[in-house]
Write a structure and sequence with these properties.
about 270 residues; two-stranded parallel sheet; binds NADP nicotinamide-adenine-dinucleotide phosphate; about 40% helix; 7-stranded parallel beta sheet
């Protein structure tokens, strides 16, 4: 029995990978979620909502370290302010935030909210760590899939991603959660910076030939920011090893129905 680490967003894509790593390190874990699941050995779920500010006091009771992963399209700024206020009350000793590469540069609401969340944490007066991550492969996949399905595939010029593997982000977050407050640490990004054409080409290797393509230009400040690479980590950022093609291969092998199962045929 040890002081649990509170993981907000412990039910999400990244959180689901971090929690087992913390458990493997011998840590008890508490998960704050709007849809709490059944408890498991060493893992307790608490109902709460970071944006509404509910359930935070119960979730933080007896907690020294908080890994704040909960996030969505809207409200990450408000959520961080709520969490900081509750964490101060609880006397938390280490607050860790996942943010996004380019948070302070991209003129998009999601990024702006992440920048405000960073500010809430860094000005909280509590010891803190902030890790900015690039987009996960899981985030880039539906974008690429959506483009590939269009009858005429638009190729936004200058739009690049550096997708990173969720396991590598989770490992880094677990390491930071088990360590001392470190302030703003180096961003984490995937091994390759890939344009949409390259992302689509690798996708086509697994999912068949692409459609006719047309170059398009993303207009306005958002387009300028993407073309300038404001969503990308700088050259010195540590890079993961598990790239886009490896991720697509994993997805393809997960989708294959094992022969023994297929042989059973439909149940009924
Ligand atoms: N995915 C990416 O490419 C990427 C890149 C950089 C940074 N990030 C950031 O990393 C974090 C985790 O991303 P992810 O991909 O794991 O997200 P995800 O799969 O969409 O999961 C979101 C998590 O946040 C929780 N959550 C959302 N709104 C909440 C609220 N109001 N109150 C309490 N919990 C709430 C959800 O829990 P319940 O639904 O169970 O309540 C869920 O566990 C997010 O902050 C995201 O912005 C993601």
């Amino acid at each position: 029995m040890n002081a649990p680490i509170l993981v907000t967003g412990g039910t999400g894509t990244i959180g689901r990978r971090v929690v087992p790593l913390l458990r493997a390190a011998g840590q008890d874990v508490r998960i704050l979620s709007r849809h709490p699941k059944d408890d498991q050995p060493g893992v307790r779920h608490v109902a709460g909502d970071t944006v509404a500010g509910t359930g935070l006091a119960e979730a933080l009771d007896g907690v020294s370290t908080v890994l704040h992963l909960a996030g969505g399209a809207k409200g990450d700024d408000r959520a961080a302010l709520n969490l900081v206020a509750a964490a101060r009350e609880a006397g938390v000793g280490h607050l860790i935030l996942i943010s996004v590469v380019g948070a302070d540069r991209m003129p998009i609401g999601y990024f702006r909210a992440k920048a405000a969340a960073e500010q809430a944490i860094t000005e909280s007066g509590l010891p803190w760590t902030v890790l900015r991550a690039a987009q996960l492969h899981e985030f880039v996949l539906p974008v690429v899939r959506g483009l590939a399905r269009l009858p005429l595939t638009p190729i936004p010029t200058g739009l690049r991603f550096e997708p990173v593997h969720v396991d590598e982000v989770a490992a880094r977050l677990a390491e930071l959660s088990l360590g001392a407050p470190a302030g703003r640490v180096a961003d984490i990004a995937g091994p390759d910076v890939l344009g949409v054409r390259e992302l689509l080409a690798a996708y086509a290797e697994f999912h068949g030939k692409g459609r006719p393509r047309i170059r398009v230009r993303i207009p306005g400040a958002v387009g300028r920011a993407y073309r300038a690479g404001d969503n990308l980590a700088d050259g010195s950022a540590p890079r993961g090893h598990r790239g886009w093609a490896e991720f697509l291969a994993e997805q393809a092998s997960d989708a294959v129905v094992p022969a023994s199962t297929a042989a059973l045929g439909p149940r009924g």
